[in-house]
Amino acid sequence: MRATLRLLAVPSAVGTQSAGLKQVPPALLPPIPLYRRLLRAHRKFLEPEMRILGDQYIKSEFRAHRDTENPVHIVGFLSEWQTYAQQIEGVSWRGEKMDKTKIDKMSDQQIGQLYELMSSIRERELAENDPDYEAPPPAPEKQ
C-alpha cells in the first residue's frame, strides 16, 4: 500500500501563534449583518428576560451610532460588538470580569449605565434567591 502525502503530513507551527506570530483578527462584519447576528445570538443563547434587555440595548446603540462618520469610532464600535457576539456565542462569558483598560476608556455616562445595569442585576438576583428581600421603593423622578 502506498503512503500518500496527506498521511505523511505533519502539523507545523509555522504561521500560528505558537510560532511567535500575532493572531490575525477576524474581518469586521458590516453593520447590518452584525446587527442581525447579535439579535440571532440573543435569541439562541439568552434567557427571555435577558434577551429583551439585550435586544433593546443593541437597537438603541445601533440607532445612536447610525450617523457616526468618524472611521475610528465606526471601527471601534463594530469591533467591540463583534467581540461581544463571539462571547455570547461561546460559553465563557458568564461571570467574566471586564478588562480594566476598557473601563478606563469609558465616559462618566457609560460608567453610570454600567453601574445601573449591575445594580438591577444584583437586585433581581436578591429578589429571586432571598425570600425575605424587599425591593426598595423607586426613586422619585427629577423634574
Automatic annotation (TrEMBL):
The keyword Chaperone applies. Transmembrane segments: none annotated. It comes from the Eukaryota. GO terms for biological process: mitochondrial respiratory chain complex II assembly; succinate metabolic process. It is found in: Mitochondrion matrix. One of its GO terms (cellular component) is mitochondrial intermembrane space. Pfam families: Complex1_LYR_2. Keywords: Chaperone, Mitochondrion, Transit peptide. Plays an essential role in the assembly of succinate dehydrogenase (SDH), an enzyme complex (also referred to as respiratory complex II) that is a component of both the tricarboxylic acid (TCA) cycle and the mitochondrial electron transport chain, and which couples the oxidation of succinate to fumarate with the reduction of ubiquinone (coenzyme Q) to ubiquinol. Promotes maturation of the iron-sulfur protein subunit of the SDH catalytic dimer, protecting it from the deleterious effects of oxidants. May act together with SDHAF1. Belongs to the complex I LYR family. SDHAF3 subfamily. Interacts with the iron-sulfur protein subunit within the SDH catalytic dimer. This is Succinate dehydrogenase assembly factor 3. It comes from Salinomyces thailandicus. The lineage of its organism: Eukaryota, Fungi, Dikarya, Ascomycota, Pezizomycotina.
